[in-house]
Every structure is written in structure tokens, then in C-alpha cells.
Amino acid sequence: MMARIFTYIVHKDGVPDDSAFELATAARMIDATAPPTAIVVGWGADLDAACRSVSASYSGIWKIANEALAYPNADLVRQALLKVLPSNSIVLVPHDHFGIDLAPGLSIKMNSAFVSDVLDIAGVDGTHLKLVRQEFGGQVSAHVRCEISSGAVITMRPGAFKAVEIASEGNVIVDKSGEVDVLIAGRRYLETVVAEAGDVDITKHSILVSIGRGIQEKENVAIAQELADTLGGAVSCSRPVVDAKWMEKSRQVGSSGKTVKPKVYLACGISGASQHLAGIKGGPLLIAINKNPKAPIFQVADVGIVDDVLEFLPALTNKVREMRTVAAK
Amino acid sequence: MEILVCVRRVPDTSENEIQLNSAGDDIERDELVYSINEPDNYAVEEALQIVARVGGSLTVATVGGEDDEEVLRREMAMGAHHGVLITDEAFSGSDGRGIATILKAFVQKGKYDLILTGVQAEDGGAQVGGMLAALLDYPFASLVNSIEVLEGKKLKISREIAGGNKEMNEIDLPCVLSIQTGINEPRYVGMRGIRQVASVPIPTYGVTDLGLDACSVGEPAARVKRVDYFVPELGTGAEILHGSREENIDRVLELVAAKGGPK
Q: How do the domains of chain B map onto residue ranges?
């Protein structure tokens, strides 16, 4: 018999994250016979609201209410989980900024195996799971074999598993708060500082000329700006452009930046890391221009052009201007 | 402050087209350009800036082989005071837990107030920092994008969370932090700088130096193993335009116009 599967529910303001329902799918892929148990950690009315919403997909719910967990400080959450989780459990956690904080240390303390950022479950074979990950910025995928006889902590990529709501009757919320005592950690949450608005709101534009590492240097941002001006759009970017201080953080598209819903997204010299793609919603026409024919962006784009953006973009700008001049005559 | 930064040498994905080898069990490594794992380089720069503000020294360490010495020298050229190569045949095939176990043993040979890692490696899973912290019973924070040293053996740090927001925390020393890219602007390292540290000896540590049980690391201890690599079939993929640049531009403008863009 396989070990019991738990999913960690990320929630905010009483609303469970999409990952709560995606993890339910992943858990059923690992073991279709035993329904997973959701662990919902927090405090107050928000926690109760989250537990109620989660019951759409889970028949078993463990609730841990603790005032110290009103904000999910991973070092405290880890302590709380260790007090309630049976040994050899399989624990599924979303691979987001919280899961990255919580999960590796949890696996050490549970003395269990750890695999991160999993996209798919390729198979279950006795005490082994075969999991799918991506490496090298998504240029290749890998099968990973994970020995689970002494349990496992696995983080799952947000969006990789289809969220399902499974109507489950007679679900039971088990209050495990009593098993968790005072929680103290060497790390204390202070406050959340909300991102500055920035000069241009890229979420409001229907055409985005989005630039990545392929733009090569700060001076070349102007090439994208000219095209955006000509097309009546705005310039957005991927993480490396912000890291290099070529553009403000407010222009970044992705899970740690903005979520955009344009009609047209021109990905220029962007490799197409999953964290970047997570910020592109609403199914825009995605046109990718990249020198590297192996760039993962070509797997998700509608149209791909293998070319140097530093030459392609100015040529595109010129063509639009030419057409306008002709039309004006 | 005594700081240790754990670094890795990895294939540079911005410089390489990663291809599978013919057996499919690894990537083609012959022609690869290797470099320091990018977030690790930001971690080293951050450590150098902290040492410049409050004093102390910086050690960079890597678990690997002879070839990995070049990234230690690169970071020493940046200003790291010491480089350490943790190497042993028994370490090969280690999973994340194995690497963290090796690093724990090394940490316990010295006295560090602060241990930094990069948030993740190109082929890794954002795991070693958090594991190392748990093994040492130190506090941990990931995705750190600012560090301020406070009085009383504490730091004020921010973490990068969703939507560009920052989560502010206070954390006690000693601790382990995983550093996010963009936290600073890593200084440039020229050939001259690297030549200057070319002959600085780099001590090595193996299984016995670290008092490790060879069965607790390396392949025998690994519960997580990569079986093979493959290139996924993700739907149909893009329609690649094979025309001349001018033809491609015309096609792009046609598509954009159909979406309500400029005619």
C-alpha cells in the first residue's frame, strides 16, 4: 500500500490558490485509489473560509489554526507540519515562492526524498515514482526516479496539472491545531511591500513588444521602444532585462512580475522560461523572434522566426513606417 | 562577518543550444560553454558588498571536480578571500540531500555567520540552501533580493514574492539565504583579475577530511536519480516562418493587423 498523500494548500484572504486543485489532480495521478488529504494552515476566519473552499476537491482536510501562522512564515509552517505529518508521507507543495521556502527543509526534517518543480507524473512502480522535470531553462526535459519508501516531498509547477473540482460528499475537516504547540522561529515576518506602479502600465496595452536577454545591452532597448511606438504598443521584458537594470521591474512579465493579457505579444530574444510564460494570459497571438532555434519559446509561440532581434526589429519598424508613408500619399 | 557562498559551475544556457546525446541519457557536453551559475554570482557580489560594509571575509566553495576550480578562481578574482574545492569520487552521483550533507560537514569545519547560495542552478531544483539550513538547524529564507545587516546578530531581508511584491523579514544569524538574481550588479571580472589569482592555492576537502561516511553521500545514498533526458512534444509548437526577412516581416504585419494592430 502506498503512503498517505498530503497536499499543502496555499491560500490568501480566505481563497485557495489554483494550485490547491492542481495538487489534487497530481495526487490522484500518483495514487488513484486513496483520496489525498489537504492540509490548510493559518488563522482566523480566512482559514475557515479556505477550508470550506478546498472541500470542493478534497474529502479529507486537516486544519491547523495557530495565531503564529496568520502569515505563512515557512520556517514556522515547517515546524507545524512536522508535528502532524505521519512518517513516510508523500507531501505535495506548489513550486512557488512559498514552496521553494518550505519544501527542501521539510524533506530533510522528514528524512524523505525531495524533487522540485515537477511537471508530470510519468509512472508509479512500487516504491518508486517516475517524474518529469525541465532543465536548462526548459530546453530539455528529464525523467527523474524518486525512491519514496521513506516518504517524499515534491513541489509541483503551478499550471502544469489541470485543476479539477471533484464533488466529494461527506468531507470531514479534522482540526489538528491541538497537536501544534507554540511555534518560534529564527525568522520573523515583518511586512509585505507592494511593488511600485512604474511609468507605463504594461497590463493595459494590447500590443506588447517584449524583450529578453537577446537585446544584449541597455542601448538596444530603444530599438524595441521605436517598434512599440510605431505599432502603438508598449515595451515589456523578461527577468534578465530587469536583473541587468536595463528596464524597471514594473515592465517585467512573469510570475514574479506582471500578468499581462495583450492581443499581440512579440517575444523578442526571450528564451521562454516557465516563470515568464506564467505571466502571459488571455491567449494572445504570440510571435517569437529568437536566434536560437532550440529556444523553448518556440514550443509555445503561434509563430516563430529564427532571426537576430537587433536586425529584425528595426527592419520591422521601417516597414511599418514605409507602409504609412505610402498610405499617406 | 564570516560569509560562505556555495557556488556551482554549470552549462551557460544563454550561450548554448542544449542538445541530447545520441544515447539520450545526457546532454551533449563536448561543446558546451560553462560558467558560474548566474544566481551564485549575485550571491558572491552581495557577500562582497556586506564584507565591505561590516568587515569580515568571504569564502567560496563548490562541490565538484578539477574543472570546477575555474569558477572558484573567477569568484576569487571578484574579491572572494578564499576558495575551497570539495571533491571526492565518493561524492559523484549525489542528489540534493547528498550535496547538502557534504556542505554541512564543510560548514562545521569552520565558523560562518552567513551562508549564501544562488536561488537555483540551471539543472537543479532550488533545493540545496533550504536543505543545508535544515541540516544545520539554521533559519532559512529563499529568493532573497535585499540584505541589511542589523545590530544584535540579525539581518533584515526582503524576499521576492508574486507580482513584484517584497516580503520583509528579520532573520537571526547564523542563517542560510538563497539569493535571487537582480539583487545587485555583479562587478566585472577581467582576464587580468583572473590571472592575478591563477596561482593562489585552492585547498581541497574529501570524504575523510570532512569526517563523512561515504555511504551517506554520492550515488549509493541518492534517492533521486535522473533516468534520462528527452525533448518534450508540447502541442504543435510554433509555425516557423522560413521566408526571407522581408517576407517574414510582411507575414508578421499581416497577423498583427488581423488582431487589430496598425494596418
A: 2-221
Interface test with A, best of B252, B254, B255 (most A CBs within 10 A): B252
Helix locations, A111-151, DSSP H: none
Q: How many residues does chain B have?
A: 263
Mark yes or no for CB contact B171/A188 under 8 Å. Answer: yes
The answer to whether B103 contacts chain A (CB < 8 Å) is: no
CB within 8 Å of A124: residues ≥ 6 apart: A2, A30, A31, A130
Question: Mutual orientation of helices B38-54 and B69-78 as an angle, nearest 10°?
Answer: 40
Residues of chain A with CATH 3.40.50.620: 5-179
Largest CA distance in chain A: 80
* Domain(s) of CATH 3.40.50.1220: residues in chain A: 202-328
Query: H-helix or E-strand containing B23?
Result: none
Q: What is the spatial distance between Cα A298 and Cα A290, in angstroms, rounded to a whole number?
A: 9
Do A226 and A198 form a contact (C-beta atoms < 8 A)?
no
Residue B221 amino acid letter: A
Question: How many angstroms from the chain centroid is the CA of residue A207?
Answer: 24
What are the cell numbers at B166? 517584497
CATH superfamily of A5-179: HUPs (3.40.50.620)
The alpha-helical segments, DSSP class H, found in A161-287 are: 221-231, 239-243, 274-277
- pLDDT per residue rounded down to tens, chain B (263 residues): 999 999 999 998 777 778 888 887 888 888 888 999 999 999 999 999 999 999 999 999 999 999 999 999 999 999 999 999 999 999 999 999 999 999 999 999 999 999 999 999 877 789 999 999 999 999 999 999 999 999 999 999 999 999 889 999 999 999 999 999 999 999 999 999 999 999 999 999 999 999 999 999 999 999 999 999 988 765 577 899 999 999 999 999 999 999 877 64
- Complete DSSP assignment for B118-173: ES--TTS-S-HHHHHHHHHT--EEEEEEEEEEETTTEEEEEEE-GGG-EEEEEEES
Q: What is the dihedral of CA A68, A70, A72, A74, to 10 degrees?
A: 0
User: At residue A120, what is the residue type?
Assistant: D
DSSP state of A280: B
A1 Cβ partners below 8 Å, 6+ apart?
none
Architecture of A202-328 per CATH? 3-Layer(aba) Sandwich (3.40)
pTM score: 0.93
**CATH architecture entry for B2-221:** 3-Layer(aba) Sandwich (3.40)
Contacts of B42 in chain A (CB under 8 A): 243
Residue A99 CA to its chain's centroid (Å): 10
List CB contacts (< 8 A) between B160 and chain A. Answer: 97, 256
At A32, which helix (H) or strand (E)?
Answer: none
